[in-house]
Design brief:
8-stranded mixed beta sheet, alpha+beta, Rossmann fold, about 425 residues, disordered C terminus, 2 domains, BirA Bifunctional Protein, domain 2, single chain, binds adenosine monophosphate
Length: about 425
């Protein structure tokens, strides 16, 4: 029989690895909510035209990476390759702009791109992202980047580079694209033409989307564009003032960053500020982009919005962020606070009832269901990393007590049933206990 296995580039997530994911998700949610972002959930499947219009037809994603299929009624649907397009569609569809001055949303979930699967690059991957809609101020861009810097610190990822650039708006870009095209069409200092030496993809992009040539990973393309004109020299006054204000605010907020004039992102909707967080840690390999984002002041209008709705957003890849966090996955798991072990049927039944009561009050309690030896039950409790073990034999059962062993301190004392919860509660606030993330 054919062996069943997951689709290439789509991963299962099992414990204890999932504990590390939960750590990331919990920290990210808490921080996003501290900055006033609220959760939005949109479908995994959207009309194909949404992504073609939002992301741009001359991008890798739309050209070759979308999972597109025909629905039973003949309409073309696509598994979302990113989160912004769906969020903006929902923002328009529910006329959110009419109800609130500005909107801060975050989302979390799987995205799908038919990329060449390799370490750190998957066909199903998870993003956590946010959108600040109807917020034109440069301080919003800076605040978002500062939040990301804070997030990486909170996750224990110190070795990152924050790269910032400005790709200009509709008023600046044509001028820059013309300058870039002229440069690429002119011969290099050695007299040899640049254009014909560019990679096939870059040659194809020269007309439609020359900015993306700066993003090429092809070594010849990189060499040929090393001295290309910089977008930062082609910004109009408004874009320049906005970008300068972003940088000034970042400095005020104490964010470490580098301006990289070659940073252009893989999605066409960006206008103005763009940014990327790159990891330097060993766990990443070539896929070191952890997070990307930027301003997209025209996207809402492109997708049918009535007026100007400037916005800025980002998304980070959960797989890559998890891979950048030091520490064994198991150390992120929440161990039981109490393991109950017993000798004899009556004691086990008592434990089961006690565990049920404590679990109902929110404690993590494990019961050993086996009629195994006390030694083997203790061994299991130890392996689970429980803070306390409650030992109940026939003797204790008759006396109405159980032995509560503090595994950290290596001490044990007899307690009544009513005294168990206060002991667990006290341990929760004691500094020797790993606090909830
Ligand atoms: P993007 O939506 O392309 O701007 O990507 C934002 C972030 O999502 C990247 O910085 C990565 O961390 C992550 N990401 C994008 N594509 C993939 C992929 N194929 N596999 C894993 N992570 C990805």
């Amino acid at each position: 029989m054919e062996r069943l296995q997951a689709v290439k580039g789509m991963n299962d997530l099992l414990p204890p690895e999932s504990a590390k994911w939960q750590f990331v998700e919990t920290r990210a949610r808490a921080l996003l909510e501290a900055y006033g972002y609220r959760e939005v959930r949109t479908p995994l499947v959207e009309p194909t035209t949404l992504f073609a219009r939002a992301i741009g037809v001359a991008t890798d994603i739309v050209e070759k990476e979308m999972y597109t299929f025909t629905d039973r009624d003949g309409s073309s649907l696509t598994l979302r390759p990113e989160g912004t397009a769906g969020a903006v569609r929902a923002y328009l569809e529910h006329q959110v702009a009419g109800r609130e001055g500005h909107t801060r949303w975050y989302y979390s979930g799987p995205m799908y791109r038919h990329e060449r699967a390799q370490k750190g690059r998957y066909r199903q991957f998870f993003q956590i992202g946010a959108e600040a809609l109807n917020q034109p101020e440069p301080t919003v861009d800076a605040e978002m980047i500062a939040m990301l810097a804070q997030l990486f610190t909170a996750l224990g990822i110190d070795d990152v580079d924050v790269l910032v650039n400005c790709v200009g708006g509709a008023e600046d870009r044509p001028k820059y694209m013309a300058a870039l095209r002229a440069y690429l069409e002119a011969p290099g200092p050695d007299g040899a033409p640049r254009l014909s030496r560019l990679s096939e993809t870059s040659q194809r992009r020269l007309d439609k989307n020359p900015l993306r040539i700066l993003d090429s990973k092809d070594p010849t393309d990189i060499a040929l564009t090393a001295e290309a004109p910089s977008i930062l020299d082609h910004l109009g006054d408004a874009s320049k003032a906005h970008f300068d204000a972003v940088l000034a605010t970042l400095r005020e907020l104490g964010v470490k960053f580098t301006v990289d004039a070659r940073l252009v992102r893989g999605l066409d909707y960006y206008t103005g500020t763009v940014f990327e967080v790159r990891g330097r840690g060993p766990g990443l390999g070539a896929q070191n982009a952890l997070c990307g984002g930027g301003r997209y002041d025209a996207l809402v209008e492109t997708l049918g919005g009535a007026g100007k709705t400037p916005a800025v957003g980002f998304a980070f890849g959960v797989e890559r962020v998890v891979a950048s966090i030091p520490g064994e996955p198991a150390s992120f798991a929440q161990a039981p606070e109490l393991c109950l072990v017993s000798h004899g049927d009556a004691a086990r039944r008592f434990n089961l009832a006690l565990a049920q009561e404590l679990r109902g009050r929110g404690y993590r309690v494990d019961v050993d269901h086996r009629s195994a030896s006390m030694k083997s039950q203790m061994k299991r409790a130890d392996k689970l990393g429980a803070r306390f073990v409650g030992v109940l034999g026939e003797d204790e059962l008759q006396k109405g007590i159980l032995m509560l062993r503090d595994m950290g301190a290596g001490e044990q004392r007899p307690v009544t049933r009513a005294e168990v919860e206060p002991a667990l509660a006290a341990a929760r606030i004691s500094p020797t206990v790993k606090q909830e993330a």
